[in-house]
Amino acid sequence: MAIERTFSIIKPDAVRRNLIGKIVAKFEEAGLRVVAMKKIHMTREQAEGFYAVHKERPFYGELVEQMSASPVVVQVLEGENAILKNREIMGATNPANAEEGTIRKEFALSVGENSVHGSDAPETAAEEIRFFFTDDEIVG
Ligand code: DAT
Ligand code: MG
């Protein structure tokens, strides 16, 4: 299996509750490496752009509001099969459906405040990494 990179966000609900370390530990325990990381406060415009794919969904306004309400931690994770592996570590979008041991099962508050974002495919991973990081911020 090839070494991949994926994009991850520790969302405002988790940063607010001081869960950065516990969430990063989950990635590291599963063999993913943090090759870039920064804490930022997304502007409303950034959140709108990042989630533009969901523009027509009924929860879009709430999602943009929530993601720009307070700081997040954006990261690039690297490892074997990183995109799918990260999705497994995160668990289902709705924490009620997330498996035991996943980040969302342990930490998410609701389907909206679900603690983490992770890319869902190679194309979106590349796009999302480029949205937040320059090449020289990624140190493999
Ligand atoms: P994921 O984050 O698991 O990739 P998604 O891409 O379908 O899920 O949705 C993006 C985010 O939008 C999700 O993490 C939380 C929010 N969201 C999705 N479905 C929702 C819903 N039914 N109600 C409220 N927020 C929702
Ligand atoms: Mg998604």
Automatic annotation (TrEMBL):
Nucleoside diphosphate kinase-like domain sequence ranges: 3-140
InterPro entries linked: NDK-like_dom (IPR034907), NDK-like_dom_sf (IPR036850), Nucleoside_diP_kinase (IPR001564), Nucleoside_diP_kinase_AS (IPR023005)
Cofactors (names): Mg(2+)
Catalyzed chemical reaction(s): a ribonucleoside 5'-diphosphate + ATP = a ribonucleoside 5'-triphosphate + ADP; a 2'-deoxyribonucleoside 5'-diphosphate + ATP = a 2'-deoxyribonucleoside 5'-triphosphate + ADP
Keywords: ATP-binding, Cytoplasm, Kinase, Magnesium, Metal-binding, Nucleotide metabolism, Nucleotide-binding, Phosphoprotein, Transferase
Superkingdom to which the source organism belongs: Bacteria
Positions with a binding annotation for ATP: K11, F59, R87, T93, R104, N114
This protein's record includes keyword Hydrolase: no
Subcellular location: Cytoplasm
Predominant location category: cytoplasm
PROSITE patterns, alphabetized: NDPK, NDPK_LIKE
Protein task: Major role in the synthesis of nucleoside triphosphates other than ATP. The ATP gamma phosphate is transferred to the NDP beta phosphate via a ping-pong mechanism, using a phosphorylated active-site intermediate.
Protein name (record): Nucleoside diphosphate kinase
Organism: Devosia honganensis
Upper lineage: Bacteria, Pseudomonadati, Pseudomonadota, Alphaproteobacteria, Hyphomicrobiales
Name of the coding gene: ndk
